[in-house]
Amino acid sequence: MESFFKLLTSIIEINETDRTFIASMLKPKEIEKGTILLNQGDVEKYVGFIENGIFRHYSINQNGKEVSLLFTFENWFVGELSSFLTQTPSYCFIEALTEAKIWQLSYDNMQKVYAHTTVGNKFGRIMMEQVYIRKAERERNLLMMNAEERYLDLIRQAPHILQNIPLKYIASYLGITPQALSRVRKNIN
Amino acid sequence: MESFFKLLTSIIEINETDRTFIASMLKPKEIEKGTILLNQGDVEKYVGFIENGIFRHYSINQNGKEVSLLFTFENWFVGELSSFLTQTPSYCFIEALTEAKIWQLSYDNMQKVYAHTTVGNKFGRIMMEQVYIRKAERERNLLMMNAEERYLDLIRQAPHILQNIPLKYIASYLGITPQALSRVRKNIN
DNA sequence: CGCCGAGTTGAACTGAATCAAGAAACGTGG
DNA sequence: CCACGTTTCTTGATTCAGTTCAACTCGGCG
Fold it and tell me: CB < 7 Å to strand C — which of 19-58 in chain A?
């Protein structure tokens, strides 16, 4: 739990009361490798702070095509935000790619944090700003770069992904097939 | 300015003091059709609430390829958020597709609103949640749909775009050429 | 009128998908 | 620790969605 407050206090000062209040709402959860944390169609009830472990967010469309949307690592959050924020069914799955430990905060408790702490909304705003910026950058990459450029950008921006995630998932994250990624990698080496 | 407070009060209650404080920081701006509101490489100093008018956000890469990233309409905001929030150079342009009137809030004044009003952070958080959700949906569309599906989704979700924006811009928003869009449209009619 | 940008249509081309098969890595049970 | 089966990754051949290049139509505006 310390790692969560380390992130929090790097963004905002927090008094002891708020800290105790928030701490009381975080529930630890140990997760086995391969666990599906959230199913497509279910409502996301939690956002989890990752103490350790790696998660993959992915979606499957009507034709059975699967795409990876996000990989999340320690000291960041796991959870389907679109579903969590609106409390409507999720369009994506979340699975644990490794065993993991997270600290979960339920939607109801999140609302209490927003209502009863002085820091909640500011912290929430700044977190949302950060995830927004990442999504906006991804939109631009998908629209303006070809497969090779997107791959090069990924290994520049997030080399830890390459070291920890199977290539087939990286391929679908980049919007290409594993075969195409294999050829891109062959080409640049 | 009423339309801005209408949106604000639809999300959060606001007292007279805060309202007056925020109102004092909004500066009106009349904009001619074709005006470039923001240049690639410049830092976005304002976020603007659109009283009327239509704007296009677009980016141009090294190869001269231009893509439209966002169209914004009345009762919503115009401004390059990634640049505004980080106060770093923008990767995109904003142009007025029509004449327009907006209410501008500078970055410095925005910080004052966050620091000195009780509603600022909550309103900011909820706005960021909304723009995040839109971007996440767009990411999914770009990764999971082909050109025709993206077009059909656009006219379903945002028919006003089709009615107000030249097809060449819609094409690049969808990530395709005007020729490809023309063929998609021919195909579905 | 004539010009100019937007939109359409056609033909050739290309980046990436698909289909298919083999090689390498991985996990599991003996 | 090895053997076997399974999954991941690679490579080749073919196909296809969308690009590029080029020409033409249309509508608005000087």
Answer: none
